[in-house]
Amino acid sequence: MIAIDCQGPGRLTAQVPSAGVSFPLRCEKGEVLPAMNEIQMPRTAATGSLRFTSDPDVSWSFALGWNRGRAR
């Protein structure tokens, strides 16, 4: 589970390369916009990474969670 907040005029893109997932978020000036996404990781992936790219005036934060009980 990835929770992301962004603020500022522009776009933020989150990528999870090991899962082959990428998703863009539109951010706005003067307003914090929250987003949440759940991504299933391949069982063969021993590690993973999270990559963010954003426009220069975008501020952002994230929280990453993991629930071992949901993996099957």
Largest sheet: 3 strands, antiparallel
Strand portion, in percent?
A: over 45%
- The shape is elongated
Structural class: mainly beta
The strand line-up of the biggest sheet is 4-1-6
Helix content: under 10%
Uncertain residue ranges: none
User: Which value, in Å, is the CA radius of gyration?
Assistant: 13 Å
* Overall mean confidence score, pLDDT: 87
Order of SSEs? EEEEEE
What is the number of strand segments?
A: 6
Number of helical segments with 4 or more residues:
0
Task: Please give the structural blueprint.
Blueprint: E1 2-7, E2 10-16, E3 21-27, E4 33-37, E5 51-54, E6 59-64
Antiparallel strand pairs: 1-4, 1-6, 2-3, 2-5
Structure description:
The protein is mainly beta. It has a domain at 1-38. Helices cover 0% and strands 49% of the residues. The chain contains no helices and 6 strands. The chain has strands at 2-7, 10-16, 21-27, 33-37, 51-54, 59-64. A 3-stranded antiparallel β-sheet has the order 4-1-6, with no helix packed on it. Strands 3-2-5 form a 3-stranded antiparallel β-sheet, with no helix packed on it. A hairpin with a 4-residue loop joins strand 2 and strand 3. The protein starts with a strand and ends in an 8-residue tail after the last strand. The mean pLDDT is 87.
